[in-house]
Design brief:
Length: 173
């Protein structure tokens, strides 16, 4: 299991940018972690890394925000406020499930059956100011993305992000 130790919001942004650089095709990414963990901050970094320069709002109330990014539809969902999974049908979530789309979903546990299956699952844990970020591939596409993400973080040199590989070897980025 790989764990990134992320010192602050700027470093979380940078971690998101490295994930953007690792993305080639479409992907479905679930983001898990408590309120204020940094899920939206990470997605903002991904969008920056894809070259999106406009404002990135949390989809707290809209539930879904769509973005124009080169070559791929990008959708950011936050299902925290969903009352019943059936609401997703009204949002047209099934229509988002195109293999070319990049779909990032906060609070996927509220989504139920209608959600597309995850390729990659990212968990963020709060450690005072710092965050621990771990991830797990759940499909072949996810394994490729996870491997590319790791190699991109190795190329990064920035204080505040520490990539721990296993228990005994730490790489400071
Ligand atoms: N190391 C860190 N990584 C990410 N965010 C951090 C960190 N330290 C402090 N923060 C702050 O924590 C907050 C994270 O908010 P964010 O909206 O990204 O969380 P979230 O997980 O999306 O929450 P929600 O479930 O409410 O949508 C921001 O205010 C950010 O500046
Ligand atoms: Mg959020």
């Amino acid at each position: 299991m790989k764990v990134f130790t992320v010192a602050d919001a700027a470093a979380m942004d940078t971690l998101g940018e490295t994930l953007a650089r690792a993305m080639e095709g479409g992907a479905v990414v679930y983001l898990r972690g408590e309120l204020g963990a940094g899920k939206t901050t990470l997605v903002r970094g991904v969008l920056r890394g894809l070259g999106y320069v406009g404002r990135v709002r949390s989809p707290t109330y809209t539930l879904v925000e769509g973005y124009e990014t080169p070559g791929h539809g990008f959708y950011h969902l936050d299902l925290y406020r969903i009352a019943v999974p059936e609401e997703l049908e009204f949002l047209g979530v099934r229509e988002l499930d195109d293999p070319a789309h990049r779909i990032f979903i906060e609070w996927p546990e509220r989504g139920g059956e209608a959600l597309p299956e995850a390729d990659l699952e990212i968990r963020i844990q709060v450690r005072e100011q710092a965050r621990s970020v771990s991830f797990q591939a759940l499909s072949e596409r996810g394994r490729q993305l996870a491997a590319a993400w790791e190699s991109h973080t190795h190329a990064l040199r920035r204080p505040g992000i520490r990539l721990q590989v296993g228990d005994d070897s730490n790489v400071t980025l």
